[in-house]
Design a protein that fits this description.
five-stranded antiparallel sheet, single chain, 10 helices, 12 strands, Beta-Lactamase, transmembrane helix, five-stranded mixed sheet, 14% strand, phosphoprotein, Heat Shock Protein 90, transmembrane, phosphorelay sensor kinase activity
Length: 567
Amino acid sequence: MTGGATGSGTGGRLRRWRQGALRLTSLRFRLVTVFALVALIAAVSVSGIAYWLTRDAVLTRSQNAALNDFSTSLEQRASSLPDQPPCHTLRSTAGELASTSQGYQVVLVMEMSDGSVCVAQSDPRTFTLEMVPDALTEAVHTRRTAPADAEAAPFHLYWQRISMGGEPYLVGGAQVMGGGPTGYMLATLGPEQDDLDSLAWSLGIATALALLGSVVLAQTAATTVLRPVQRLNSAARRLGDGELSTRLEERGADELAELTRTFNRTAAALEERVADLRAREAASRRFVADMSHELRTPMTAITAVTDVLEDEVDSLDPMIAPAVQLVVSETRRLNVLVENLMEVTRFDAGTARMVLDDVNIVDQITACLDDRAWLDAVQVSGERDVVARLDPRRLDVVLANLIGNALKHGGSPVRVTVFEDRAEGRDDVVIAVADNGPGIPAEVLPHVFDRFYKASASRPRSEGSGLGLSIALENAHLHGGEITAHNAPEGGAVFTLRLPRQAAARTGEHAPERQAGTERDSRAGDPGGPDSPDSPDASEDAGAAHARGDRPADPADTAPAGGKGER
């Protein structure tokens, strides 16, 4: 019970995993994903471009205002200074420069006449000369050369953005011409950065809303697009289930509407074709049934004559006796073929019936072997008390086919194993028939149960009717069971018959016992037939399947004990 529960749990998880994988690969998921990705890329691109343009505009405006104010104030203050101002005058001038509305700090540097350097700072706690980047200092003191006809100044105003303590700042510097001081300014960009951060958050929220809106739009679009596809899928399923009259309503003039029209045309053509094939198949079945029925009466007369000839064969001319034996054997073969054809027509028409009874499987196998004198050539093993509710006559037909097939092409001893299978909630009886033959060629194995299948066209004739294994399979299906064939690893072919322990009778479990001739074919006057107790049990084998190149053939076309076919 634990193993079964574990297997069931594993199977459930596997099914859930497959369903999840199918959802991830569904057309709806892909449409929504594409919509979302396109919207996300578009929103991020637009937001990024807007952010960088706004950032550049804000910072450029702020820094230009501060630099222009610093340049103008430095020029005005420096022009009023004497040629060699004292250091305290420079400090006073730095304070005046820093008192503007821009709110920047100033450092003035000037080399004095005695060779010393005066550094005047508006606020030593906020801005010192050491905070000025070396690259900026070098650029400020570099003299620029210009063409002779140009009036460009030899020194320029330079600036650089820096970060201190996580806060952005603007540092600018310029040298006053004519031997004046060099001035540096430090302006904070904190307010502008706060504005840019707020803008970034707003753009992020807008991007998220755009993404959400795109997903909703994609869902709506996917529903609109996939609804016709879903209707088409449902219609295709019904068509595959056999509802050939399925049609879809044609609306619109788009590609999906054209697909709908194509589906309707295809379904109509398929319905017409299938109806034609069914009519041809029904006519063919009626022909086979009529032919089989019509052959019964002359075959009865021919069989009576051949029986008389066989009884008198010893008194016939030795030159004629072989011909008589040939006529007798071919008549029996033809008789079995007719019986098998009638049995097949019953299966095709769905009129085959079962009479169920409680059957001991091992006893039934033993009786089958005893009736055909196969006891010495077959080994039966397995559980002796396995009882199932089956049709004993049909089970005898199946066993005769499988065991006879193994004896003919596998040789003795044939091993028949009986066991019960109750795994995963099943309640089946399994009968395995294994032989010692060469096995079944891989290209023939899928066809061993086909009607009249020939593995080699060069050998068109075989000893049997070519229908026995097909009839055995149909009898298994009638019980709700199955027959499979495979090659054993150690060699030889293995045919496995699996039947439910409680088979349900197609016409009722309490159907009265049939007597000879009570079950008729679709035509009146059919004397007996394969379903009657006195009809021959055609035993079929897969001769082609055992590397002989033959089609499946009847191994012995055996009949019940005492019948004319048992020699």
